[in-house]
Amino acid sequence: MLFNTSQFIFLYLPITLLFFFWIARRNIQLAAVWLAAASLFFYGYWNPKFILLLLASIGFNYAMGHAIGNAGLTDLDRSRRLLIFSVLCNLLLLGYFKYVHFFLSTFNRIADAHLEWIEITLPLGISFFTFTQVAYLVDVHRGVARETSFAHYLLFVTWFPHLIAGPVLHHRKMMPQFVCPGTYKPNFDAMAVGLTFFSIGLFKKSLLADQFAIHADAGFNSVVAGHTMMFFEAWMCATSYTLQLYFDFSGYADMAIGLSLLFNIRLPISFASPYKAGNIIEFWRRWNMTLSDFLRDYLYVPLGGNRKGLIRRYVNLLATMLLGGLWHGAGWNFVFWGGLHGVFLVINHGWRKWRAGTTAPRKRWSHAAGVLLTFAVVVIAWVPFRAPNTEVTTAIWQGMSGFNGFEALWMLWPLPSMPFMEQEIKLLIGMMIVWTMPNTQQWIGRMVPDGYDPDSNVSLRMSQSQSQSQSKIKWFAVICGLLFAFSVLSFNKYSPFLYYQF
Question: Could you tell me the pTM of the whole model?
């Protein structure tokens, strides 16, 4: 089931929400069970047979969490062995469904063999619910997490706003919310903020991402069919995908936050205007922040981080980004994309180290130049992320480098059936949005006195102080209502989120 469908918005969501608070008035434990059951239905709506796989994964990790926690009280070595065993089992499950064909095809290519395997359907969200549980097991071993209620653990893993495409959740941040009695009482201010998040995210997906998808898909498909791109056409194709991916994924993240707020649950923020980043280090602190934190805390730091010398630090960075790329998909294009960003990070850290030893003054225009340079290298790196093979990647990069020549902008026709200059205008609008406008949480800060803080224990309340603030809120509500209406009216085709495939 997709967030951007009438079935979800007008049937599943209101039924789940109303029954949740109705049951919570009688028994909050049953209300938690209801949410877990509704989340399982949400997951199984796509393919019911994978509910058993999800439940098996949850049951195994819940039991291993208990074993690891109990062993940690008396025998840390045994706790560590149990942790290694359970993490390997999770990785084997993920590897079987996601990577077996990748490894077999790679082996066949290298060894000129012809090994075959049965066709495997990739379960939705397997990377996210696997990584969420791996983080839980590591935290149990570290002594910072423990769960005794299976119903609450089931809800933690299956929580439907995050289950399919993230964010990656931490038990220690989510469970206090699921056990808090205040969660089970309606908070209409939180609902208003949640609907705002959801409306903005729905607009990003339906009326921005899907528009850029038209041009990105047309461009990449034309190269697959043998078309040779020149300079501006290649850059517009890659930039279209760059904007599509951002509005698609950040739209999902906004909707997930908004849906959770309807139930008084706060999810972490995943995006903070990443295309405004002045360097690639800052970009990764703003893009898919929960995954970046996971890779840092559970991979980069255990590898040694920056504690074992400069060369080892750079090796750890490259290894982390290569594995982060492979996490996104079973293909060498994803590994290559991760490796590119690893190289970018190494160069950026080296540049910072060199700059720290100089006395050169910082120019006023240097930040703007940094934003443009960072955006350009990110656009270049998204090409292999989207391209189906290295041949398409090379062909588009040749066009972007000017190898195939330059064309006049006024001669560009994105598609024969499209109006003149439509793609160029859309790209300008998209870049103005990502470079000049506030992000969703900054917009929310105009409604909520202290803004949206996912780590706060204070009940979310809208500003009640001044009539001027109330006037702003009313106008903002009208705008969000229009965004929601226009988005719903645009529902005319099946449009899954890009990160569903990961």
Answer: 0.90
